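input
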Amino acid sequence: MVVETKYEFGFGFLNFLYTNAEGQEIAFDQYLEEISKTLIGLSGVSDFKMSYQFRPWEVQLLPIKVPDVENGEMPFPDMEQTALSVQFRLNIPRSEQEKLIDAEIFNVKSENFLVVYFCGFSGPSVFVFTLDAPRSGSHGIAVVREFLLKALSESEHLRLQIVGPTPFPRDCLLVPGDDIGIGFAWTCKEQSGYDEIRYVYDRDAYVDDDELIYDFTRELGEEVAQYFGILRWNRRIEIQWSELETRILNLAVGLQDRNFKSKTKSLFRYGKDASILGLDLAVLEAQTIKEDAEMTVIFREAQGQDLISMLEVTREIQTDRIAATPKQLEKVLSIVDATQSKRWNAIWPVIAALLGAIVGSHLI
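output
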């Protein structure tokens, strides 16, 4: 059988967060059952399918607080290494779409979508294929995202987590071709609005559309998850640098206090704080260098074989800023240390005079 289907789609990052105020853990089967039960029960959902290849855990403890995935924390539960695939069709009438999105921003012509969630070794990803209207581009994922956000807000145990940009800023096509062999070829075309990425599969390589979609979302899903993992890493590092920067600058501002009593009381504390901050600075700088090197390896391995051209997409790791920040903060800490030394030199004669007066009074 020859597969000739042409698909338009968008992709991004969605995670099915499990919450339970009454329990402290979640079982593997319980999590999958909750996804199945919740999604099948939604209006407009049909042809629901779920599969996984690996079962790396049986029970996970619930986190104390909801992980902030957009700011770099790990999704919960940890479904990496499961190769979990969740697929369903979703009908969202035009009248419902108008309540969910701004039609002037998201030009969605379709009412029927194929939604595929895949979680592989690099984390979760989601694909939304438009089924009944051309030229909706990647905007279909926007209406599906908002539909699921609203629907799952009423669920007892599931919530939807998103990391932007979702949709990823490209219009994507999956089309048949000849002599492609195993895997997928791709080209990128610049155009007004989002650029177009055209993925090509061998029309003779697949027996049906289900097999095509399964293989394609698995292969591209790993790279999509990898890309969003890099964005989350970058955000986490930015937050850590920002917090450390605030602590160091607060220390410097405190030293500008001109009140003598305040200066004297804080003399010991500021010296200790400066030492701790200096150590924190060195540790964070080393961590940043190590993790940035790991990201560089990922990009190098992807070069020439990646399906979404991660190297072509902006690499959102602020290497210049990170390289400059330690030097700036080290300078602030050195000034703090120098200020401390000057204060000891200024205050020590006063302390000595006070001690002399006290000793003298006892000798009289």
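quick obs: The first helix runs from residue 28 to 40.
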